[in-house]
């Protein structure tokens, strides 16, 4: 028999995992571009794309929640939150970086530096991925918001390797997988406006996606606020049937016990490249120290959920 407080806690988590779509999407990534979560996510993304590029066989990159592809750091949204100051700005100010972070920083500077030597623009995941595509590779980019999708389409215009869809990325995973070529990577990077319900939506999308394209790498970004809202998703990943391995990396700047702020974030990776946990371990501790600044208690974690 479970105790009453435990039963209440479980009921609260179940309730939080219901999909309740927001009446209107308020999310705009421009407020968050280049923040600590983007840095963490994009360094991992580059590592995964590097692993795919290690073999000459073509690959396909699928971005289910692509965003607009490029963000103006001098614009009103980025300046209002200043979130990039706690993210990319700290990385670019660091004196010494491990190779993966140095490579990421070089790419960001190459794209975003203005004539005065300031970082004016920050690239989103589709643009970082495009820089990694070779002639034989392909990309499928999905974005639901019309304005963001139009900006993304304009950015990718003329690149025959890339298709932009203005549509629901979850439904697209079911409809468009497996792509050609049949080697590749899916990035799932939702806004989590539906909070815990987003995990349920991810699970519902991953089930047919994995059935159709079982050997792809899937990288799923998630925010860390209250730990107990994440645990059921991690259990779900750990119980995936089939041959999939699952590793997760987490970066925590604050304790994971407050629903009111972004305390950290994680990336769950299904079918990671060989020894990807070791690749993560080469830079995640340095990044954690760098991004923590004066905040005590920052932590990172690399853990196999299934192997
Ligand atoms: C976190 S941002 C993506 C950032 C981008 N992946 C990057 O790293 O640069 C999430 C994006 O998903 C879009 N979005 C929200 N719900 C969506 C859905 N169901 N399908 C596709 N895109 C969606 C939002 O408009 C937003 O641009």
CATH superfamily: Vaccinia Virus protein VP39
Amino- and carboxy-terminal Cα gap? 32 Å
Number of helices: 12
| Biggest β-sheet description | 8 strands, mixed
User: Which strand order do you get reading across the main beta sheet?
Assistant: 5-4-1-6-7-9-8-10
- The overall pLDDT, averaged over residues, is 93
Gross geometry: globular
Low-confidence stretches: none
The CATH class designation is Alpha Beta
Please write the string of helix (H) and strand (E) elements.
HHEEHHHEHEHEHEHEHEEHHE
What share of the residues does DSSP label as strand, in percent?
15-25%
Kindly provide the radius of gyration, computed on alpha-carbon positions and rounded to a whole number of angstroms: 19 Å
Bound molecules: S-adenosylmethionine
User: Structural class of the secondary structure composition?
Assistant: alpha/beta
Number of strands: 10
CATH architecture: 3-Layer(aba) Sandwich
The percent of residues in helical segments reads: 40-55%
What is the CATH T-level topology?
Rossmann fold
Number of domains: 1
């Amino acid at each position: 028999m479970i105790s009453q407080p435990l039963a209440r806690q479980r009921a609260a988590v179940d309730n939080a995992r219901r999909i309740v779509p927001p009446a209107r999407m308020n999310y705009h990534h421009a407020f968050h571009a280049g923040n600590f979560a983007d840095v963490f996510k994009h360094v991992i993304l580059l590592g995964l794309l590097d692993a795919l590029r290690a073999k000459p066989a073509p690959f396909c990159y699928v971005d289910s929640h692509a965003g607009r592809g490029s963000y103006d750091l001098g614009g009103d949204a980025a300046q209002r939150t200043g979130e990039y100051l706690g993210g990319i700005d700290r990385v670019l100010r660091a004196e010494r970086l491990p190779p993966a972070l140095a490579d990421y920083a070089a790419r960001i500077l190459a794209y975003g530096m203005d004539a005065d030597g300031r970082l004016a623009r920050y690239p989103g995941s589709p643009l970082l991925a495009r820089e990694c595509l070779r002639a034989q590779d392909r990309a499928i980019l999905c974005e639901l918001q019309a304005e963001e999708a139009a900006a993304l389409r304009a950015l990718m215009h003329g690149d025959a390797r890339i298709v932009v869809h203005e549509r629901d990325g979850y439904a697209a995973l079911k409809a468009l997988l497996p792509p050609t070529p049949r080697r590749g990577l899916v990035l799932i990077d939702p806004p989590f406006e539906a909070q815990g319900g987003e995990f349920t939506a991810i699970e519902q999308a991953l089930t047919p996606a994995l059935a159709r394209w079982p050997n792809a790498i899937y990288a799923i970004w998630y925010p860390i606020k209250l730990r107990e809202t994440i645990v059921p998703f991690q259990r779900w990943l750990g119980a995936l049937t089939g041959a999939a391995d699952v590793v997760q990396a987490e970066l925590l700047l604050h304790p994971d016990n407050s629903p009111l702020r972004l305390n950290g974030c994680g990336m769950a990776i299904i079918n990671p490249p060989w020894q990807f946990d070791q690749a993560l371990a080469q830079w995640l501790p340095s990044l954690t120290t760098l991004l923590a600044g004066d905040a005590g208690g920052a932590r990172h974690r690399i853990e196999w959920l299934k192997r």
